[in-house]
Design goal:
- This protein has one domain.
- Helix content is 65%, strand content 0%.
- It has helices spanning 2-32, 34-37, 53-71, 76-99, 112-125, 143-154.
- It is globular.
- The termini are far apart.
- The mean pLDDT is 83.
Length: 159
């Protein structure tokens, strides 16, 4: 029973992190910490961005929960930290590797969900001012982009 409880905590934390990513992106990154996030919306040739500081900002709670949970006999805090870590890995793979191609992997996909995800993110990046924007989440794609990607797969390509 304990393993199911801990698995549930990890899964619930992972999904809660999508809300936290949306909230933080909309109100913190596009708010008072725009100074760190702004360079992410501007095309630059450098590999690192000030925006990468958010990796550390999100890693600190995860690491802290790992430490506190391990010190308490691997209680629920450890598993919350695991959920945050797994979301961070998913975020890195989807956002940095798949969408922004910071590493040349996962370049091509005709999967409807991944096409919708790229489109939603592209729409988000067309806004260059802090308060502007849409599509602040990472893994949850607005239905209109999913529908558009699905429709484009059904439309025959002209030769």
């Amino acid at each position: 029973m304990t393993i199911l409880l801990y698995a549930g905590i990890v899964i619930a934390t992972f999904f809660f992190m999508e809300f936290m990513a949306w909230f933080t992106h909309k109100y913190v990154m596009h708010g008072f910490l725009w100074v760190l996030h702004e360079d992410h919306h501007v095309k630059d040739e450098g590999f690192f961005e000030k925006n990468d500081a958010f990796f550390l900002i999100f890693a600190v709670p995860s690491f802290t929960l790992f430490l506190l949970g391990a010190a308490s006999g691997y209680d629920f805090k450890f598993w919350i930290g695991m959920g945050i870590l797994l979301y961070g890995i998913a975020y890195f793979l989807v956002h940095d590797v798949f969408i922004h191609q910071r590493f040349k992997a996962l370049r091509y996909s005709n999967n409807t969900y991944f096409r919708a995800l790229r489109k939603a993110h592209k729409v988000h990046h067309k806004h260059l001012e802090a308060p502007d924007g849409e599509c602040f989440g990472m893994l949850v794609v607005p239905y209109k982009y999913y529908k558009e990607a699905l429709q484009s797969r059904k439309t025959p390509k002209a030769k």
